[in-house]
Amino acid sequence: MSENPAPSGGVTHPELLAVYVNDHLAAAAGGIELVSRMIGVHRGTELEQPLRQLLDELREEKTAITGIAQALGFPVRHYKQVATWVAEKASRGKLNGHLLTRSPSSDLVEFEFLASAVRGKRSGFETLRIAATVDSRIDADLLDRLIRQANRQHDWATEVRRDVAARVFGGDPDAPDSAADHGNGDGGGGDDSGAESADQT
């Protein structure tokens, strides 16, 4: 592995990073809209409070990334956020094949989408954390905290997604863990780069 580059006081291709940051801000707007709607669906259940906590964290993250964009002197493209909001509204009837009502799989599809979105968001935080090593205007400590928060969010969303899948279709929600355990115990010298990356964050 090559040595980390020395801080140079600025990122390479800032114009591309500006687009990248705005794309993640747009995705954040869509995530906030989705979770807000899910709270309405799950009001009064054991999922309401965790979803409310997630919504607060998503809003905080959006504010944090907006602050990073401003620190870098990037314009915030609000039209992209509006477009994402509209797309999320339009997708409601497409996710489960029911235009006006929720199907039994609606919860599953939403939690699958949520878990995937959190993974994508975490990738964005990691990219900015890499850029922080060459630009002191990017708050590295903040991004470290957001990465840890995204890891926790993904663990929770994955657990709920599996529970919902078992409720909709039947089966054991812990079965994927058993498959992973068997794969790790085959003695085949699997790739441990993920563990190495986690140790470095």
How would you describe this structure to a colleague?
The chain is mainly alpha-helical. The chain has a single domain, classed as Ferritin, CATH 1.20.1260. It is built from 7 helices and no strands. Helix 2 packs antiparallel against helix 5.
Write the layout of secondary structure elements.
Layout: H1 14-41, H2 48-71, H3 78-90, H4 106-132, H5 140-169, H6 175-184, H7 193-200
Helix pairs in contact: 1-2, 1-3, 1-4, 2-5, 4-5
Write a compact overview of the structure shown.
This protein is mostly helical. It has helices at 14-41, 48-71, 78-90, 106-132, 140-169, 175-184, 193-200. It has a single domain, classed as Up-down Bundle (Ferritin).
Q: Structural class of the helices, strands and pairings?
A: mainly alpha
Give the terminus-to-terminus CA distance: 16 Å
Q: What Rg do the Cα atoms give?
A: 19 Å
Mean model confidence by pLDDT: 82
Quantity of strands, as a count: 0
CATH architecture: Up-down Bundle
Q: At the third CATH level, what is the topology name?
A: Ferritin
Shape annotation: globular
Beta-sheet strand percentage? under 5%
Largest β sheet strand count, sense and barrel closure: none
Strand and helix order = HHHHHHH
Helix percent band: 55-70%
Please tell me the total number of domains.
Answer: 1
Name of the CATH first level:
Mainly Alpha
Q: How many individual helices?
A: 7
Low-confidence regions: 1-8, 96-100, 189-201
